[in-house]
C-alpha cells in the first residue's frame, strides 16, 4: 500500500510538471500537424524535434542514424546498463485533411491522420519533464523519433543497422493513441498485440482500345474488378472462418480517359492476420489466382507480395510490471487488458522481436477513426500522455 501511495504521488508530480509545459506541447503538436510529411521525407519534422531536444538540459542528440530523418535523444548517458527506449513515429498518412482546423495540413496529399503529431509532442514533453528528474533516473532513457511507421518499415531499417546494440537498448515501449477507446484509459494485452501486416501489388495488363468496342480490347479494369471479388470469395470459402484474416485493396488505379479502355490496371492492398500459416496460404493463393484469372479473361497479371511487419509481441514480464506500477497512475478502472489482439499492424514488431517490449494504446474517445480525413486528437491528453511516459522511465525496472 505504501508503494502504491508513493507511485501515485510520483504520478501526480509528473502530471503537474507536464501541465506546466502543456502550452509548449500544444504548439509542438500543431506545428507538426500543419506541416505533415510522408515516410522517409520527415525533414521539417526532424529539424523541429532536434531543435527541441537540444534545448533540454542533459539531453544527448543523434540525428540521422540509419535514416536521414531519424532523431534520437538520450537522457542519463553516464548511467551504466541497458536503456529503456520510448518510441514515437513521425510520418503522416497520404490523405487530404478535412478537419477545418486553423492549423490544418498545408501539405497537399498528406495529413497526420494517426495521431503521430500528438505522440511526438507528448514524447518531447516526457523528455522535458524527465530532465527535471535526472537525479532520480536509474537507467538511461532513449527517446526514438522514428521515421516511416506507415507501411514503410522504418523500424526495420533501424534494427538492421544495429540501433539496439549501438544505444544498448534493453527494453522498448510504445504508446499509441486510439480514437476508438475511452478517453484517458490505457489498453494492452499479454503476448500478441497486433496482427502481421503485408503489402500486395497486382499489376494487370490488357489491350487498350475504344470504350465503344470492348470486344476489340482486353479490359484490365474488368479483370481487376473480378480479382477483388475472387480474392474476397476465396477468403470466405478457403480459410477457416475461425482464423482472422483481412485483405483490403485501398488503391486502384487505371486509365486516363472515361471513354478509353486502358492497357493497364494496378491494385494495391494489404493483408492482416495473426497466424503465419494463414498468411502463407493466402499469399500462395493470391499468387496463383491472379495470373490464372487474368489469363482466363485474356490478360496478364503479376503479383508482388511484400511481407512488411510481423506481430507485435508484448513481453509477459513487462505486462506484469505494467499492472504493478500502472494502477497507481491510472486507477483500478483506467488500465485495461484487451481480450483480442488488434488486426492493425505496427512496425514496432521489429523491436519487440529483438528486445522485451510493451505496446500500449491510450484512448482518446473521439468520433472519427484513424486514417479518416476528419481525424483529430484531444490536446488535453498531451500532458497526461507525457507524464505517463516519464513515469514509465522512472518506475519500469525498479
Automatic annotation (TrEMBL):
GO MF annotation list: hydrolase activity; metal ion binding
Database matches in InterPro entries: Amidohydrolase (IPR017439), Bact_exopeptidase_dim_dom (IPR036264), Peptidase_M20 (IPR002933), Peptidase_M20_dimer (IPR011650)
Binding site for Mn(2+): 114, 116, 150, 371
Keyword presence, NAD: no
Pfam family, one: Peptidase_M20
Keyword annotations of the record: Hydrolase, Manganese, Metal-binding
Cofactor: how bound: The Mn(2+) ion enhances activity.
Superkingdom, natural source: Bacteria
Record SUPFAM superfamilies: Bacterial exopeptidase dimerisation domain, Zn-dependent exopeptidases
Coiled coil location: none
Listed cofactors: Mn(2+)
NCBIfam families, alphabetized: amidohydrolases (TIGR01891)
Family according to the record: Belongs to the peptidase M20 family.
Name recorded for this polypeptide: Amidohydrolase
Organism listed in the record: Cloacibacillus porcorum
Amino acid at each position: 500500500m505504501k508503494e502504491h501511495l508513493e507511485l501515485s504521488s510520483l504520478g501526480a508530480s509528473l502530471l503537474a510538471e507536464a501541465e506546466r509545459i502543456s502550452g509548449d506541447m500544444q504548439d509542438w503538436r500543431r506545428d507538426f500537424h500543419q506541416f505533415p510529411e510522408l515516410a522517409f521525407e520527415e525533414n521539417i519534422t526532424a529539424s523541429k524535434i532536434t531543435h527541441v531536444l537540444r534545448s533540454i538540459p542533459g539531453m544527448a542528440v543523434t540525428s540521422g542514424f540509419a535514416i536521414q530523418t531519424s532523431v534520437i535523444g538520450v537522457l542519463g548517458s553516464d548511467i551504466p546498463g541497458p536503456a529503456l527506449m520510448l518510441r514515437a513515429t513521425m510520418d503522416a498518412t497520404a490523405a487530404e485533411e478535412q478537419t477545418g482546423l486553423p492549423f490544418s495540413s498545408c501539405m497537399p496529399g498528406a495529413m497526420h491522420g494517426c495521431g503521430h503529431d500528438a505522440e511526438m509532442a507528448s514524447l518531447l514533453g516526457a523528455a522535458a519533464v524527465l530532465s527535471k528528474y535526472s537525479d532520480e533516473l536509474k537507467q538511461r532513457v532513449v527517446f526514438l523519433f522514428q521515421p516511416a511507421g506507415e507501411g514503410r518499415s522504418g523500424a526495420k531499417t533501424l534494427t538492421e543497422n544495429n540501433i539496439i546494440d549501438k544505444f544498448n537498448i534493453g527494453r522498448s515501449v510504445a504508446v499509441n493513441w486510439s480514437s476508438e477507446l475511452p478517453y484517458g484509459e490505457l489498453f494492452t494485452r499479454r503476448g500478441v498485440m497486433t496482427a502481421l501486416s503485408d503489402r500486395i501489388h497486382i499489376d494487370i495488363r490488357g489491350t487498350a482500345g475504344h470504350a465503344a468496342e470492348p470486344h476489340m480490347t482486353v479490359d484490365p479494369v474488368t479483370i481487376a474488378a473480378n480479382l477483388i471479388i475472387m480474392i474476397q470469395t476465396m477468403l470466405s470459402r478457403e480459410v477457416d472462418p475461425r482464423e482472422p484474416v483481412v485483405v483490403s485493396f485501398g488503391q486502384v488505379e487505371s486509365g486516363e480517359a472515361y471513354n478509353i479502355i486502358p492497357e493497364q490496371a494496378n491494385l494495391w492492398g494489404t493483408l492482416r492476420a495473426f497466424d503465419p500459416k494463414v498468411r502463407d496460404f493466402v499469399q500462395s493463393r493470391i499468387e496463383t489466382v491472379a495470373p490464372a484469372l487474368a489469363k482466363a479473361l485474356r490478360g496478364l497479371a503479376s503479383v508482388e507480395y511484400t511481407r512488411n511487419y510481423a506481430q507485435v509481441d508484448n513481453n509477459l514480464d513487462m505486462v506484469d510490471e505494467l499492472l504493478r506500477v500502472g494502477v497507481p497512475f491510472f486507477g483500478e478502472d483506467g488500465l485495461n487488458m484487451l481480450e483480442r489482439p488488434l488486426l492493425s499492424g505496427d512496425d514496432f514488431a521489429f523491436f519487440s522481436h529483438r528486445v522485451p517490449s510493451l505496446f500500449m494504446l491510450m484512448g482518446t474517445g473521439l468520433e472519427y477513426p484513424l486514417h479518416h480525413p476528419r481525424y483529430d486528437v484531444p490536446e488535453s491528453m498531451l500532458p497526461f500522455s507525457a507524464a505517463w511516459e516519464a513515469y514509465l522511465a522512472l518506475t519500469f525496472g525498479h
